[in-house]
Amino acid sequence: MSEPEPVAGADAFAHLHADVRAALSERGFTTPTEPQRRAIPPLARGDDCLVVAPTGTGKTETAMLPVFSAIAGREPTHGVQALYITPLRALNRDMRERLEWWGEELGVEVDVRHGDTTDYQRSKQADDPPDVLVTTPETLQAMFTGKKLRRALADVAHVVIDEVHELAAAKRGAQLTVGLEHLREYADGFQRVGLSATVGDPTEVGRFLTGGPEPTIVEVDVGSRLDIEVREPRVTERDERLAGQLMTEATVASHVRVIDDLVREHEATLVFVNTRQTAEALGSRLKELGTNIGIHHGSLSKSARIDVEDGFKAGELDGLLCTSSMELGIDVGHIDHVVQYQSPRQVCRLLQRVGRAGHRRDQVSSGTVITTRPDDTFEALAIAERALDGDVEPARLHDGSLDTVANQLCGLLMGFGEISARGAYEIITRAYPFRDLDEGEFKEVVRELSENRVLWLDEDADRLEKSRGTWQYFYANLSMIPDEANYTVEDMASGRTVGTLAERFVVNFAGPGEVFIQGGEMWRITEVDEEEEAVKVTPVEDPGGEVPSWVGQEIPVPYDVAQHVARIREQAGRRFERGAGRDTVARWVADAYPTDEHTAHSALEQVVDHVDADAPVPGPSRVVVEFKAREVVLNASFGHRTNETLGRVLSALLGQQSGSSVAMEVDPYRIELEVPGGIRASDAIDTLETTDPDHLRPLVELSLKNADSLKFKLAQVAAKFGALKRYRGAGAANFGRDRLLAALQDSPVYDEAVRETLHEDLAVGRAADVLRRLQAGGDGAPAADANHGLVPIGIEVIGQRTPIGLGGRSSGRELLAPENADASVIATVKDRLQNDRVILFCCHCHDWDRRQQVKRVPDQPECPDCGSTRVAALNPWADEVVQAVRASEKDEDQEKQTERAYRAASLVQSHGKQAVIALAARGVGPHNAAQVINKLREDEDDFYRDILTKERQYARTKSFWD
């Protein structure tokens, strides 16, 4: 239940012990903050409580003052009386100092225990436990293994969980919820307190905290205290001059200037960006301009982060340019303004970021969002409006993660030594994320762990017992944060080691020609050596002229935000269709949303041009399909995850229909497809209208089976089941991800890898609802669907590209580089293709074949045996194609392979070595090679750019049609 507003003038501090009240006066606490005023009374009476409030509103004292009060009024005990659990690997210094001050003042011993705590200190804590122990979710797990610590934990009466919203959306949090139920076996009935940033579903987060019962919820309204302005800077003459100095466009110069102005106008400004690369690129330009600003992100060393935190807090820096590294409760002193560069993508992020400003002086939290293009502006307007209304996204709990069950079964055994399977099941299912865990799934997990020798299973006696493997597994898997290999980054020019890259980065991104930043320098990938776990790079000579093509994992825009953007566009479009001028509509936008007329005017240009082209404006219940040449674009405002799901299915099914790859790219507002000849917009629409929504999940799962992302996830999950040691000695890559997939396909390991991939990247349920609405839509009449109560979605087709359709991701590249600033990328691609090998095979006599480097192939290859120029160029692993052509009797697959060889030979016969080069590219078959070759171009480099584009499309879509 939500806590009602207290009676005006009521003193929350009166509910505290006299010693605590005396310490409050000495500390200078005269008036409680709003969270303290509303939460201390229910906390003092022992209620479970979730406190939802922005950073900087005194949440730590809100939770801990009643805890200190209870300890002060209670008879001393031997054990730990309160646990303060934080997801931060090391409690920030300010918070630790504050808690230690209260402890010293009240005679309450406060100590910290985490991964870096010394053995001596651990032993001391076991022999003489502190009253309050500050720890992490992982260290709590380890505490169950010590006999003395288990006795100490029996006295726990309060558990405070900081940043509970972060944990609720992570497997670390799911692990912690079972850990709390494990703790109940020693200390039943302890009070649970959660401290959270603003979330859309506090009741659900509250149940996550308590295990099911709804706690008292104290929620501070943030939206009514926000002052947000969305601005797209106007380019001035000064910006034109600045552009040369900053080696960038005038548009970007205007962004840099406005941020500089805002930092200079305020005392202490946080400038948030969405990616590490943007922080580096924007930071270098701000420093060039003389802005007194530091850079703070998770890839910097701990000492570098502490230096800028201290400098900012001491007033030596006027601003801090940061990523989400500053969203958690790191104290950097008073902040009076927050700048968000580009849309924050989610309402909760805007609230967490802008909410950091103004609290120390009871001010309104003020922030400015700097936008860069129409999509960005409309998205920021929608998010700002939703933030002001308090309409926040729900936390996405990891329900039923099976690797967490495996992990916690071992945790229970480390505490109890042995336990009945029924008893373990009951403890685990008391935790909220596992309330619906099926007994059958639980038994499969137990059997998998038994087969992996992680525990001993006595099925006849229904007993689980600890084994030697339990010890080894447990200490290797204290954390649910997956272990990842690190690839060494080697500078080919100098031979020196630059640093390391995480395996996830390498698997999902790294390829020849890609650019990234490390150590403040920009590097281009030349080669990835899987066996040596090394990435060979060369420095980018002109970092001012390029931007990294990889921008990290993109923050997904939610469905509701994308629908809101569609609604703004649709309403503006209707006004234009009725004859309103741009100035009039811009005034409407500026009146309705927190922005100025210039920003509205600039964003509306896209909608004006769209209406002038007589194109229907896409809306929340209208999908506009564009079709031109081989491009099919669905203007569908359903958010990242839903569009990714629909795009995967469309790409897979159209690819099966045509027998060729269908390239796909999505953003929150569009699904862009490049289709082979013979496929039209009507085919995409037919696929949407005939695909059974109830069959969507199996279709998506089928498409995932060949995806590198699933295989990578499978290796991580397998480690959490203790399964990898059954298959290899070291390094998942050594065993081979394909073999691992085959070995684990019918196991709970595979089921969990699929579940997590769907949870993180896709939205199958929402996409199924969209399909139902599309299939109910017909001509778009907005009548409710009788079967599901869903508003139908109409589809309109237009045979041209439109301004809104063209405004997608390709136009949203970071505005920090001119186009085609990629000479060294093209040189790398040329060099690689020339050194690649191909199979040359005569399709006339079928007798001759040879493997040869591309650079050694003559301009017009011919067969040395029969003299024919009908020579196919095939990838070096395509032996089955040669065998298929030579087979006297062919099955259906061999017929397709033969046709592929003949088409390749026809290309080589017509275009010579140019065709050989195109056919040597990765995933570029005869169809795509013909597209590249037949394109008119003046610059040879464009030929290689097109090949690289096809290779990237293949890498993205190969899981659907390999």
Please, could you describe this protein's structure?
The protein is α/β, with parallel strands linked by helices. The chain folds into seven domains: 12-221, P-loop containing nucleotide triphosphate hydrolases (Rossmann fold, 3-Layer(aba) Sandwich), CATH 3.40.50; 224-388, Rossmann fold (3-Layer(aba) Sandwich), CATH 3.40.50; 402-476, Arc Repressor Mutant, subunit A, CATH 1.10.10.10; 486-545, no CATH class; 559-605, no CATH class; 622-812, no CATH class; 823-961, no CATH class. Helices cover 46% and strands 15% of the residues. The strands form six sheets. A seven-stranded parallel beta sheet has the order 3-4-2-5-6-1-7, with helices on both faces. A six-stranded parallel beta sheet has the order 8-13-12-9-11-10, sandwiched between helices. A five-stranded mixed beta sheet has the order 18-17-21-20-19. Mean pLDDT is 85; it is low at 1-10, 543-552, 728-734, 779-787, 810-822 and 958-962.
Question: Can I get a quick summary?
Answer:
This protein is 46% helix and 15% strand.
CATH structural fold name of the largest domain: Rossmann fold
Shape descriptor = globular
Radius of gyration: 30 Å
Tell me about the largest β-sheet: 7 strands, parallel
How are the strands ordered across the major sheet?
Answer: 3-4-2-5-6-1-7
Distance between the termini: 53 Å
Q: Got a strand count?
A: 29
Q: Could you name the ranges where pLDDT drops below 50 across 5 or more consecutive residues?
A: 1-10, 543-552, 728-734, 779-787, 810-822, 958-962
**CATH homologous superfamily name of the largest domain?**
P-loop containing nucleotide triphosphate hydrolases
GO biological process, one term: DNA repair
Domain Helicase C-terminal: 258-403
InterPro entries: ATP-dep_Helicase, DEAD/DEAH_box_helicase_dom, Helicase_ATP-bd, Helicase_C-like, Lhr-like, Lhr-like_DEAD/DEAH_assoc, Lhr_WH_dom, P-loop_NTPase
Keywords: ATP-binding, DNA damage, DNA repair, DNA-binding, Helicase, Hydrolase, Isomerase, Nucleotide-binding
